[in-house]
Structures are given as structure tokens and as C-alpha cells.
Amino acid sequence: MSKGITSRDTDYSQWYNELVVKADLAEHSAVRGCMVIKPYGYAIWEKMQAALDQMFKDTGHSNAYFPLFIPKSFFSKEASHVEGFATECAVVTHYRLKNDGTGQIVVDEEAKLEEELIVRPTSETIIWNTYRGWIESYRDLPILVNQWANVVRWEMRTRLFLRTAEFLWQEGHTAHATREEAVEETNRMLGVYADFAENWMALPVVKGRKTENERFAGALDTLCIEALMQDGKALQAGTSHFLGQNFAKAFDVKFTAKDGKLDYVWATSWGVSTRLMGALIMAHSDDAGLVLPPKLAPIQVVIVPIYKTDEEKAGITGFADTLIAELKAQGISVRFDDRDTQRPGFKFAEWELKGVPVRIAVGARDMQNGTVEIARRDTQTKETVAQEGLAARVAGLLEDIQQHIFTKALTFRNANTVEVNTYDEFKQVLEEKGGFISAHWDGTVETEKRIKEETKATIRCIPLAGQPEDGFCMVTGKPSTQRVLFARAY
Amino acid sequence: MSKGITSRDTDYSQWYNELVVKADLAEHSAVRGCMVIKPYGYAIWEKMQAALDQMFKDTGHSNAYFPLFIPKSFFSKEASHVEGFATECAVVTHYRLKNDGTGQIVVDEEAKLEEELIVRPTSETIIWNTYRGWIESYRDLPILVNQWANVVRWEMRTRLFLRTAEFLWQEGHTAHATREEAVEETNRMLGVYADFAENWMALPVVKGRKTENERFAGALDTLCIEALMQDGKALQAGTSHFLGQNFAKAFDVKFTAKDGKLDYVWATSWGVSTRLMGALIMAHSDDAGLVLPPKLAPIQVVIVPIYKTDEEKAGITGFADTLIAELKAQGISVRFDDRDTQRPGFKFAEWELKGVPVRIAVGARDMQNGTVEIARRDTQTKETVAQEGLAARVAGLLEDIQQHIFTKALTFRNANTVEVNTYDEFKQVLEEKGGFISAHWDGTVETEKRIKEETKATIRCIPLAGQPEDGFCMVTGKPSTQRVLFARAY
């Protein structure tokens, strides 16, 4: 069919790019590096948002909204923060256009801002400047706030969902009276992200800690979840930062503790973005198109009638109406594809491309036999089953598929996580197989950077579940007490 | 109490400004003209979003997302559109900051954009440029897309929610094969807005058509809903535009019709914004604080225990736990305010300020008598009622309050809508009473502008429900066939 896409084996990168566009998820816009998220892609993002938002609320957080623009001077207040973001900022310098008299629309130089405004790449600075007015005493703490927003980071090399100049995300920003409470929050939100990734996205993740070199600009500690894609490259799927008192000090946010003493407030921030869409696509999909976990599929079931006459179609439609009502009563989203303009084969391929988990085909003979053909997208298998009890069967099948997609991804990850003890072995695995490589490292930035330069692999994280183990750095031979996880990454 | 606010009679404008801040809805940010929407305010906005979003989906629309930035050249393509928005645009000119060597962070002049980017004030141009790639034939139509987004219009005089440089909104952008279908969509969405305003916000609105002079920049027809605030000023609460083929022509979006002929696509756009928060506040609230319609109240019921001993508190808490479970089972949101740090009187005032529709106070004597004191926020009345059957009573009361708030606002609007037949009478009513004034107008922009200059009143709309009536323009004496609605407006 015309919508066929390059296979993963032929060119994984090309497969991804084509799939995103042909499955109607997103496309490049006329604005450099910015994407258009199309309705079908946005419907998946909305499901992600709804699930995450509920999890945030269940852990005591509220949503709020802070300005898109950040005064340039705010940026300079936290030294490592500005260093991290200064080179990729969209800068607003004027607030008016005018007609130049020849019919051309030009920037009105008389409308120059006294201080430039930065389009937020992240909101720590504007939020902590605001929190100064919200916090006086320990009674005002904790503040547990999240924001759903767009942010801009001027990336030079962009890819749909994975790396775009503008992207959508949520950013949690919390304020606490004690270090312990902030650390606990940092861990809690990492747990929420891991829970979401595994139980909604069907994406197994490794929870870990970033090395100092890979930390968020301004954080004392950055925790992350790391996932493995089908091409053996890793993808950072979410981060949770313990910010210490860095931003409170930069923006002079103090509180009176129970004992009457003044102290700076402790902070966390944490975020996931539309990058998760990239992870979802690359982790599960195949050469026929998207494979979506049922919990995030905008359409969970599609029913395709196969008929020659109007009478046959009417009979099938009657059956489908009943089935749809039964499925909807169970909260299952279903589409009845009775378009006369397309043949069944075309419809099958289209819904495969779009990753609908379950397809039910019903023909005239099925109606006589009281059967349907039911196909599952993940395994691309099909069987003929009775119409009786179909809704319950579909509900069970959706759960099976959700579980199976996760198990498949986990099996893949386990098969592609190897321990190595020498640098030669490391390089060999990286070239021949990819995946996560667990190895000893001497803990220095120098060695970390050398490995990155020589192999393009980075330390994805120091796994939280990792066991202490005495060993020697595979590069320098210096002593090490725990293995860390390397990979080439998106 | 310390949170007392200026009364409406003393200074309506000051009352509004104080209420927004003291009820924790929003505050001014450090960025000129931009607001921070605080968690309590955002929770109301989320309820509005959820209701509207469902209504959009029920009428066949899907959400999508388009870039924040619009190339300057796109703006110039629709002449009246650029004229309407050019003077209030935030313009991005650079994409990088740098350290100037002295430790100062400055704009990197080497990172100047070839073409400036405008932060979207509305998205017709970027969306119609995108639709060109989505539309080939009538089979691709209609496109029924909505976007939830932030937009920026550089307002010089700003007020929280009512007029801010950045605001949140939704913008629907639809594409159709025929004029009739686009006109029908324009009307349908106006109906959705009116339905939402009246049945969720408890805000009676007049559906009408804008005069040519007040039309959206680029529209052939702008429909609107207009509401009346307590100070007698009108507020435009939502607009729905029939754009004709203007944007299709500007961006060369053609389609092949069923008969094989090429034609330009027909368009609509429609939007409501966080301005609705301002309307909600100003329409219903009183000198004690917010009055929220139950359907949009983040907390619908607050339970305040009144106790002296821990034993008394324990007894009341046991009762409250059961009640809360019963209320939640009915989908009612409830807060049990058992803070030991505040007295009941303080709590009563705080929840009044925040507009919680129903307050239940329970003391030790109530527990003995099997009663509670139940107070409704809208009328500020209270009564002692039996604990038995309380949950059902509360559910009924919430419905009553929703209805009562609407009826009260409708009665006010009716009492403040007058017909006048002379310009003197018009000016007198405007000065002494305000409100909507229904009068004959000769249909010319000149007269409309003259009235605005002389009285600051504008034509809010030509009511859709208005009856043809022969008369004479109150200013020029020229013939007129229908009364239009004037008011001073926000």
C-alpha cells in the first residue's frame, strides 16, 4: 500500500521519521525546529497527560501557570543554570511591528524592550522569583505545584518528538522546609514517572542517578528513568531534580522555621515531555506501523465490516451497534470503520499503521456463523471467535496486550543489557550489539568525557537498584565500587 | 479579618483587583503584563477547560498543537489580519545569549534570525499554512481542530484575567468544503459557548453579531456572546468567526470538489480565554468574596468542625468521614477543614472569600442533637438541619445554588437592559445606570465611532434574537430596521 514505510532493519532512523508522519502523529512546521502535533498524535499525548495529571494530584500536587517570558536578568542569577541554557534561548527584543511605508511589515525599532525577555526553556527562575512572595514561614510549606506548558530550547538538529525547538511538557516545582522532605519528593516523583512508564507506556525503565557531568543545570542531584529503544540506543524518559537551596539563594527565598530561625527553602523540580511520544513509538512499533499499549491508544478497537450488498452491511451494522454499546459501557474506545470509499485491506493496513490494538472484522458468513475475526496488533495474529461474549473477550485481550507489550520490551532490554569488564569488550559490544552496558568506572569526569569522545557512549545513570561491587574502571584501572550503565543515547 | 476587601460600592475596580489576589486566583508577575495563575484560580480554569473540551469533542472536534512562533512573512499575507495584530506583537529576533566577557549575560548578535518570529497572538496564519498540506479534495474535509494554548498580545494597560499580555485560551480552526457548512459551524460553536456560559458559568449571555467595525481582523462575520457585569459594563465572553475564503486565499489552500472543480476552502475560527475567569468573578461575587457556581467550584463543600476537646474533635471527625464518603460517591468535591491553627470564624471568612458554595459547621451540641449548620454562599443564609439525609440535601442544594446564581444574574441583566429612543436618553441611562442599552442605529461606521468617542459606549452586538423593527437612528435620525445593543465594556 502507498503508506508503506521503510523497515527498521533497512534504516531505523528513516523508519521512525516516516512512521511519525505517515501514522499522522506529527509533522515539521514551517518554523525551524518546531513541530505540528496532529490530532491523532495529540490524542495519545492527551491520554498521557490525563494519566500523569491524576498521578500528580494523587500525590498532593496542584496545577498553576507561570509566564512564558523570563526577564534576562533572572537567568543570570543562578550561575550554572544560565550556563546550561544561555546558548539555546529564543530572545524577544521588540513588542511591535509596523508598516515601513512601502507595504513591508518590519520590526518597529521604537518598540525595543528595555530588558530582553527569554522564552522559557524551563521555569525555575520565574517560579522561584514568584515563590519569594508566597513563602514566609514553615506554615506556607510545602508548595507542591505543577505546570503544563510549552517551552523552547533552540536545538540545531531536531527530530520530531525527540528533539524539537518547542516542545510540550509538565514541570513540577516544589518548595520544602527541610532537605529530607525535598529529597523524598525527588524520589517520589521519580517513582511516579517509573510507574507511568511501565504501567501506562508499557516501557520498562531503569531508575538511576545522573553523574555530576550530566546533571540538570542548577541541581545538586538529578534522578532519571532510562529506557532502551529497539535499535539499542537509550532514551532518557524523565528526570527529577533535587535542587538543594540553589534557587532559594539565587532568588532570596527564606522561611521562618518552627524554631523561629530563618533558612533558605529547599527545592525540587521534575519533568517529562512530548519526548515520551518518541519513546513510545520507538520502543514498541514494528515495520507495519505503530504498536500502541491499549491504555494510551486513542482508539482501542476498530470494527471493519466486510460486505457486498446494502443488506449485508445493514446486518453487520446492527451487530456492531450492539457490540459498540457493550464495549463503551466498559470504557473501551471503539471505531466502526464503515467507509464505503475504501476496501477492507486498505482499512486493515491503515489501522495497523495507526497501532489500534484490536481489530474485529465481520463478514456476511461470520454473521451466519455467529463469529467474528479478531486480530491483535502486537503479535499480528488473528483468530475466529464466537460473537457471544465478545465484549468480555475484547476487554481481557486488551489487558493481555498491555502486559505482553511490556514483557516483550522487558525481554528485549534484558537481552540487550550486558556486563563488560574491559574497554575493548565495551567497544565491541557497543559496535556489534548496542544496548545498555554495565561497567565499572572510576567516578571522574575526565574518564566519562574520554569514553564519550572515543565511543559516543554516555553514562545513562548510576542505577538506584545497583549493588555495591568492588571492581576496577574499565578504562583507567582505578578502583570502583559500583557498576554504572552506559549506552549511546537519543 | 485581615483578608477583608474593598466593597463594590466603594470602588468596583479596586474590589475586583483585591478579590483576584486575596482569593488566591492570580497575581501580577515580574514580567510586564503577564500574570501568574495560582493553584486555586487554575483549578477553576481546569474545570472550565474540561467542560468545554468535552463539548468540543461531542461536536466532533479533535485537539492538535501548532507552533508558538509565526514567521513574520506569514503575518503579512492576510492584509486586515496583520493590520489588526501588528502593533501588539512580541518579536523574537535572536536565538542565543552569551557572556560578554565581563560576566554580563547579553544577546549574542551573531545569533540573529534571518526572519523574525512573532509569538502567536492567534494562529490562523500558521494553521492555514499547515492546512495547505492536509487538504487536497473534499474527502479531506471538514477539518475540525481545536488547540489549547498560550497566546501573547502586547497590551499596554493590563488587568488580571481581563486583559493580559499573555493569556491562555482555546482556538478552534475548521476547514470546510462549502460556505453553508462553515456558516453552520460558526453558529454551532457560538451555541456551544452560550450553553457553557449559561449552564456552567451561570452567566446569561446575549448572542449576537459584531458590527463590521468590531469584527475580528480577517473575518467576514464575527458572532459573539456578551455578558453584563455587576457594575453595568459589558464583557465579550467568546467569539466565533466566519472567515470565508480569506485565509485559504492568503495561503493558497484549494480543494477538488465532488464535481472535480478546484475551489478555495472555507474557514471558521472561534475562541474563549482566561478572560472568562474575569467574567465569572465579576458577574457573581460580592463584598465577602467570590461566589462560584457549584459546577465550576474546585471545592463544592467545606466542613468545619467546632470543638474544644480532642474527644469532641474525634467525634465530629468520625461523622465527617462518613459524610465525605457519601458526598464523594455522588461526585461532590469536599474539604474537611480541621486545621488546629485557625479559629472557626477565620475559616468561615476564608471559605467565603474563596466562594465555596456550601459550608457545613458541626459542633459538639450538633453531635448531641444529630444536626449540623448548613450555610449557602450565594445568599449567605444558614439553617440547622438533621444529619440524616444530609448528603442528598447537599446535592440538591448545589443544584439550587447553580440555578439561583444564574437566575440572579439574569434578573440583574434584565433590570439593566433598557430601550431608548433618543441620544439624550441614551447618554443619561449610560451615566446614571449603565447596563445594556437597546437603540436604533443607522448602520454606519461613522455614527458608531462618533457614539464611542462621545460616550465611550460601543455596539456590543446586533442580537441574533432581535426582531426587525422600523425606527430611526438615535443620533442621525436616519432609518434603521433593528435595534442594536450598546454598552460600555471591558
Summarize the structure.
With 490 residues, the first copy, chain A, is an alpha+beta fold. The first copy, chain A, is 35% helix and 28% strand.
Task: Summarize the helices and strands and which ones pair or pack.
The structure is a homodimer of 490-residue chains.
Chain A: H1 12-22, E1 26-28, E2 35-37, H2 39-58, E3 62-63, E4 69-71, H3 72-75, H4 79-85, E5 91-94, E6 97-99, E7 105-107, E8 112-119, H5 124-134, E9 143-152, E10 166-176, H6 179-199, E11 206-209, E12 221-228, E13 234-244, H7 246-250, E14 254-256, E15 262-264, E16 266-273, H8 275-284, E17 301-306, H9 310-329, E18 334-336, H10 344-353, E19 358-363, H11 364-369, E20 371-376, E21 381-386, H12 390-415, E22 417-419, H13 423-432, E23 436-440, H14 445-455, E24 458-463, E25 471-472, E26 479-480, E27 483-487
Parallel strand pairs in A: 3-9, 17-18, 17-19, 22-23
Antiparallel strand pairs in A: 1-2, 4-8, 5-8, 6-7, 9-10, 10-16, 11-12, 11-24, 12-13, 13-16, 14-15, 19-20, 20-21, 23-27, 24-27, 25-26
